[in-house]
Amino acid sequence: QVQLVESGGGSVQSGGSLRLSCVGSGRSFSNYAMGWFRWAPGKEREFVAAVKWLSGGNTYYSDSVKCRFTISRDNAKNTIYLQMNSLKPEDTAVYYCAADSGVITSQVLQASAYHNWGQGTQVTVSS
Fold first, then answer.
1. What does the alpha-carbon distance between residue 91 and residue 40 come to, in Å, rounded to a whole number?
2. Residues 72, 86: contact at Cβ < 8 Å?
3. Which of 37, 56, 62, 53 is nearest to 116 (CA)?
4. Which of 24, 34, 21 is CA-nearest to residue 4?
5. Can you give the pLDDT of all 127 residues of the chain as single tens digits?
C-alpha cells in the first residue's frame, strides 16, 4: 500500500519561500510519476509540478509557477521536494502530493492519472 506524507507547509509573506517535502513508502517508486497539486477554496484542483522517476527524471510545471517553483527528487529516500520561491497570495492553497505508476507524459498534468494522494499541507501567503 502506497503512503505519501507531505510536510513543510506554513505561512509566509508575499515574496517569501517555502520547501515542501513528500515521502513515499510502501513500495518502490522506480517507475512512478510523482507530483504536486493544489486546491484553494472556491477553485478547482490545479496541477503544480511533477517529476517522472524514469524518462531521465523529466520535470513538468504549470505556467503559473514556472520559474518560481522547482521540483526535485531524492531516489534513495523516495522523496520529492517542491521549492517555492517568490510566493504570491494566489499561491495560497492546500498542496497535495500525488503518485502513480505508468503515468504517460500526456497525463502527467491530470489529477485523474494519480491514484495515490497524501493528506495535504496548507500553504498561506499573505500580502
1. 9
2. no
3. 37
4. 24
5. 899 999 999 999 999 999 999 999 998 887 889 999 999 999 999 999 999 876 567 899 999 999 999 999 888 888 999 999 999 999 999 999 999 998 888 899 999 999 999 999 999 999 9
